[in-house]
Design brief:
- There is one protein chain.
- With 162 residues, the protein is an alpha+beta fold.
- The chain has one domain.
- Helix content is 22%, strand content 35%.
- The protein contains 4 helices and 9 strands; from the N terminus they run αβαβββββαββαβ.
- Strands 2, 3, 4, 6 and 8 form a 5-stranded antiparallel β-sheet that branches. Strands 5-1-9-7 form a 4-stranded mixed β-sheet.
- The termini are far apart.
- Keywords: Signal.
């Protein structure tokens, strides 16, 4: 019987281990659209567009003690600001800042996307409400869903949002 157990263990040891998923490969593709007034403001003021990604998820039972005390979620990181072209169309954004080592800590990893013009101090002082761009992005969603299809980002001037 001992020989059978030893042979079985040796056979199992020879099997290749299942690869652990590396997590989402990304990138997230943003489908940025501008209203005519927003496009005119971007063209007139030469605002570069910045994207910020933040990642989190609800903990699996083994990691309930690792949650952020305020949000009660597992923080999976935040991307550094990433610049995308100030033109309408599809713009890929890498999943920079995602803490892949913690993906096994959550049931499902989520991403929040923020897009905004990057203004210098002088541009902020001289900005008019009509030139202020507000970009609406989808609510927080799973990273798997966000990487599966382009995310619509609609940019309008502040007066158009009222």
């Amino acid at each position: 019987m001992k020989e059978l157990v030893i042979v079985a263990i040796a056979a199992l040891a020879a099997l290749p281990l299942a690869a652990q998923p590396a997590g989402p490969a990304g990138p997230i593709t943003l489908d940025v659209q501008y209203t005519p007034a927003a496009a005119a403001s971007i063209a007139r003021n030469h605002y570069p567009m910045r994207v910020f990604l933040s990642f989190d998820g609800d903990p699996v039972p083994a990691h309930r003690r690792d949650v952020d005390e305020i949000s009660e979620t597992i923080d999976l990181g935040m991307s550094p600001p990433q610049t995308i072209p100030s033109t309408a169309g599809a713009h890929p954004v890498p999943l920079a800042g995602l803490n892949r080592a913690r993906l096994s800590w959550v049931r499902e990893a989520r991403v929040s996307v923020s897009v905004a013009p990057f203004l210098t101090d002088a541009q902020i002082r001289n900005a008019r409400a009509a030139d202020t761009i507000i970009c609406q992005s989808p609510a927080q969603m799973s990273i798997a869903r966000a990487t599966a299809q382009p995310l619509p980002i609609i940019c309008r001037t502040m007066p158009e949002t009222r």
